[in-house]
Specification:
By secondary structure, the protein is α+β, with helices and mostly antiparallel strands. Helix content is 38%, strand content 23%. A hairpin with a 4-residue loop joins strand 6 and strand 7.
């Protein structure tokens, strides 16, 4: 930037002492550098750079009092300095406490070639930048934590079997509804969101509904009333609780189920739920696609989870099965026959440890199909059976008896064929003769499986690839 005519007139009479005073006042350090690049004078205004002992720089080349990496910058700074276009560059001065960053602006003073280098200490800016980076990282960690909490809350919100609505208290319109609420209010098309909540209840009970809303707004504690969803329908317990979301007041509305059970069965159901929760075997309930809706403490222990609630919302094959096909095989079998018994597989724990298990499962019919799995750790049983029967050792002993009666290559080939045939039979049994699933379970292509089936004489007409 070139100085204006007024500036040239105002500063034309300024003496050298005034120029020096102005440079010192405007910077943390000012250097007078001659035409050969040597420092002829030093002035430090604020004292923040006294630790560098700038007075010792007098007589030394400017390029020698900076860090080696900054020397080309100093040479360029002195070369490009002009009275009408000051040059600026960031250089580092070495010190025992570490490099000190300084931004210099160089101005050539006249025909003698002397340059005034005015420097500003950049450490406060660097500290501010480090603080900003630390704050940004903390904000990102907090945002990540909030995202995780939101994901868990949404998983629970959609998995809970009780109908739940979230209503904006001012407009009384529904802003969110879980799948159970859509089913209870016959809203499979998802049109609940945006509707006034009063339209979801029997018109004859509107006064009771408004009274419940008023009580909920007036108290932070949950308020409850019995209302009908439709004329002639059963009275259901409806609970409302207020909470704040940003600057808005929201209503959490929970709709109960019809009280069709007699009083003496309720304790039995509570005892049954307690027994399921405390069962030593893993018990898991999923939706029709295998997504976990409930898991007991026994399952959490098998897969090394801190709490069973952490499994809710995840797909069961995250832990179950040697490959991604076994849960699909189980679900397919449950759809066909309604139950599966003693399906052998493995359970993969949190830290990659595999546990041999047997899975029994049953399909629970209804508007929203549920699949219940019982998972039993059989690792100890298998080890005991293996130790007792010594099946593998016996087989090896029998093979050893063939030595002398047949070449080793023939013995090994026969053994490989027996093992392959047994593995294929086991895979077909586990998949209920679904050859596509069996090939994937064995790690073979379908063509390779068909070739082996023909070689072993197992390619008899039977079910198709999908098991039918």
């Amino acid at each position: 930037m070139k100085p204006t005519a007024a500036a040239r007139y105002s500063f034309s009479g300024l003496e050298s002492v005034g120029v020096a005073s102005l440079a010192v006042a405007a910077a943390d350090v000012a250097l007078l550098v001659d035409g050969r690049g040597a420092i002829r004078d030093v002035a430090s205004g604020s004292g923040v750079l006294d630790a560098l002992e700038p007075a010792h720089w007098i007589g030394r080349p400017f390029a020698e009092v900076v860090a080696p990496g900054s020397r080309p910058k100093v040479e360029a700074l002195l070369r490009d300095a002009e009275g009408s276009a000051p040059a600026s560059s960031h250089v580092d001065h070495p010190s025992p406490q570490g490099d000190v960053p300084v931004r210099y602006t160089a101005i050539r003073t006249g025909p003698t070639g002397a340059v005034i280098a005015i420097g500003r200490d950049l450490r406060p800016i660097a500290r501010m930048q480090r603080h900003l980076v630390t704050v940004q990282q903390a904000l990102e960690r907090e945002q990540s934590r909030r995202d995780q909490v939101e994901i868990r809350c949404r998983a629970l919100f959609h998995a809970v079997p009780q109908p739940v609505l979230i209503v904006e208290a001012t407009t009384m319109r529904i802003v969110e509804a879980n799948p159970a609420a859509s089913r209870a209010l016959d809203d499979a098309g998802g049109r609940l969101v945006g509707r006034p909540i009063v339209e979801c209840f029997d018109i004859g009970g509107r006064s009771d509904l408004h009274a419940l809303i008023d009580r909920a707004r007036a108290s932070p504690d949950p308020r409850e009333a019995r209302l009908r969803l439709r004329p002639g329908g059963p009275e259901l317990p409806v609970a409302m609780t207020t909470f704040r979301e940003d600057a808005s007041t929201m209503l959490l509305v929970r709709i109960g189920t019809p009280a069709t059970e007699s009083d003496h069965t309720a304790p039995l159901h509570r005892a049954l739920l307690g027994a399921v929760e405390r069962a030593p075997d893993g018990i898991v309930v999923t939706d029709g696609a295998g997504r976990v809706l409930y898991a007991n403490a026994g399952f959490a222990g098998l897969v090394r989870l801190d709490a069973a609630e952490r499994a809710v919302g995840e797909v069961l094959d995250r832990w179950l099965g040697r490959s991604g096909t076994e849960l699909g095989v189980l679900i397919s079998a449950l759809r066909q026959s309604g139950s599966v018994r003693l399906f052998p597989t493995v359970l993969r724990g949190r830290f990659g440890v595999e546990t041999p298990v047997e899975v029994s499962a049953a399909a629970v019919p209804g508007d929203a199909p549920r699949l219940a799995f019982t998972i039993r750790d059989v690792g100890r049983r298998w080890s005991v059976e293996g130790a007792g029967e010594r099946g593998l050792g016996t087989a090896v002993d029998r093979l050893a008896e063939l030595v002398g009666h047949a070449p080793m290559k023939e013995i090994v080939g026969t053994t490989v064929d027996l093992i392959e045939r047994r593995c294929i039979e086991a895979a077909l049994h586990l998949t209920r003769n679904n050859r596509a699933a069996a090939a994937e379970m064995l790690g073979l292509s379908r063509q390779s499986l068909y070739v082996k089936l023909r070689r072993f004489g197992m390619d008899d007409p039977g079910p198709t690839e999908d098991g039918h």
